[in-house]
Design a protein that fits this description.
339 residues; alpha/beta; 434 Repressor (Amino-terminal Domain); Rossmann fold; 3 domains; 6-stranded mixed beta sheet; 13 helices; 14 strands; 44% helix; 17% strand; elongated
């Protein structure tokens, strides 16, 4: 393996001179620097950028903590893509750390990024509480921003979506189409996102003078498989419903399969809607009505908060209704498919 000593020998200088030329912190004559750069090219030497940057307390990298339980799905793949491209647009390298299966694992992932001297850290938490996240921000000099959680003490260090209001808006749309018996497939119990979407569903029904039926609320686990099982459970109850809102698009796709296997037509027999606006929903048949979550805007704002903290930034976002073919208008007790 080529070393810095090999470069120094070929260029006729000391190792310290090569190091100074690479660091750029001390002036090195242009003719000497040219010899060093030529020697690097001739030998194929690759400087240890991490070691060099650690010495300078700067790595030009942005860390992202996300648990591996969230990797599996198009929504979170898109999130990581936006985090990587946004970091790149600021000439930063994205470093991904796995939050694994507990709050302590998420802490360990944060500690790893701190040890790597990441310039700033984004956290998409699953296990850490709001108070724990506030404590982490308060106890570290490295800038930290939390995605998809509203903080109490560090309101300028978080970017989140109003899931309750977004869910309320979706249910209001379904009600406007004439649906009154609307089922809901919730996420895992205890998920902040899932609980807020469930609350928005119930609030919208109550505002419309409809008492939420607890039997029309079933739990999923965010996955397509869990949506499929939730669909089978809803059908087995023999309780009438004309529309189902799933707490994410993945579960909505599973619901569709369960309904179609039971001989139900979408949307003529059952209307269906989801959340997140995953790519698959656009190309599904019928194309899925959903609530778009502006993850690209949220990631952009998170990176801007970290790298340009003195500027004003938007922390709270709202979803945007994407009306497609999977919801039919209910007229005189019949779902009318207008497409």
């Amino acid at each position: 393996m080529v070393t810095i000593l090999d470069v120094a020998r070929l260029a006729g200088v000391s190792k310290a001179t090569v190091s100074r030329a690479l660091n750029g912190k001390v002036f090195v004559r242009e003719e000497v620097k040219a010899r060093i750069m030529q020697a690097i090219a001739d030998t194929g030497y690759r400087p240890n950028l991490l070691a060099r940057n650690l010495a300078n307390s700067k790595t030009n990298s942005v860390g992202l903590v996300i648990t591996n339980g969230l990797y599996n799905g198009p929504f979170f793949s898109s999130m990581i893509y936006h985090a990587a491209t946004c970091s790149e647009s600021h000439s930063r390298q994205l470093v991904l750390a796995d939050g694994k299966h507990s709050a302590q694992d998420e802490r360990n992932a944060i500690d790893l990024l701190l040890e790597l001297r990441c310039e700033a850290i984004m956290i998409y938490p699953k296990y850490l509480s709001v108070s724990e996240l506030d404590d982490i921000i308060d106890s570290n000099q490295t800038p930290v921003v939390v995605i998809n959680r509203e903080l109490i003490r560090n309101k300028n260090q978080c970017v989140f979506i109003d899931h309750r209001r977004s869910s309320e808006e979706m249910v209001e749309h379904l009600l406007a189409q004439g649906h009154r018996q609307i089922a809901f497939v919730a996420g895992i119990c205890g998920s902040p996102t899932g609980e807020r979407r469930l609350r928005g569903y119930r609030d919208a029904l109550r505002k419309a003078g409809i008492s939420p039926d607890p039997k029309l609320v079933v739990r999923g686990a965010w996955s397509t498989e869990s949506g499929y099982e939730a669909g089978r459970q809803l059908l087995a109850q023999n309780i009438p419903f004309t529309c189902v809102l799933a707490a994410n698009d993945d579960m909505a796709i599973g619901l569709a399969k369960a309904f179609q296997e039971a001989g139900k037509r979408l949307p003529e027999d059952i209307s269906l809607a989801g959340f997140d606006d995953s790519v698959i929903g656009k190309y599904f048949t019928p194309a899925l009505t959903t609530m778009h979550v502006p993850m690209d805007d949220m990631i952009r704002d998170a990176v801007e908060i970290l790298l340009n903290p003195d500027e004003a930034h938007i922390s709270s976002h709202l979803g945007r209704l994407v009306n497609r073919d999977s919801v039919a208008r209910r007229v005189n007790g019949v779902n009318e498919h207008t497409s």
